[in-house]
C-alpha cells in the first residue's frame, strides 16, 4: 500500500477534515501564512458521466506580496490546471507539493 501524500509530506500537507476531506492545504514550515489550498469535487451528470474538478487557491499575506512584487502568485491556479492536463492529478499534486516544500526530497 502506497503512503498518502499527507504521510509522505507531513511537514507540508494537511487535510483539515481528515482523510475524507475535499480540501488539502500546502504550507511551507518556514513561510507561515503562505498557503496553497487544493480543493476537489466530483460532478455527476444525469447521464451518469463523472467529472472530477480540482482547483488551486492561494492565500498569501499582503506583507509577503509586497516583499516579492515580481513573483507570479496570481498565475498559480492556471499553472496548476496546465499541470493537471499534462501530468494528471497525482503527478500534478506531487509537483505542487515539491514546489511548496522548496526541496526535491521533503
UniProtKB/TrEMBL annotation:
It comes from the Eukaryota. GO terms for cellular component: chromosome, centromeric region; nucleus. GO terms for biological process: CENP-A containing chromatin assembly. Pfam families: CENP-P. InterPro entries: CENP-P. PANTHER family: CENTROMERE PROTEIN P. This is Centromere protein P. It comes from Pogonophryne albipinna.
Amino acid at each position: 500500500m502506497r503512503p498518502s501524500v499527507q504521510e509522505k509530506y507531513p511537514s507540508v500537507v494537511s487535510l483539515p477534515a481528515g482523510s475524507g476531506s475535499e480540501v488539502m492545504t500546502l504550507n511551507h514550515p518556514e513561510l507561515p501564512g503562505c498557503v496553497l489550498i487544493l480543493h476537489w469535487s466530483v460532478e455527476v451528470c444525469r447521464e451518469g458521466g463523472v467529472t472530477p474538478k480540482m482547483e488551486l487557491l492561494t492565500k498569501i499575506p499582503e506583507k509577503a506580496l509586497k516583499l516579492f512584487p515580481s513573483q507570479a502568485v496570481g498565475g498559480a491556479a492556471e499553472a496548476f490546471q496546465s499541470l493537471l492536463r499534462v501530468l494528471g492529478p497525482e503527478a500534478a499534486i506531487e509537483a505542487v507539493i515539491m514546489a511548496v516544500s522548496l526541496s526535491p526530497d521533503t
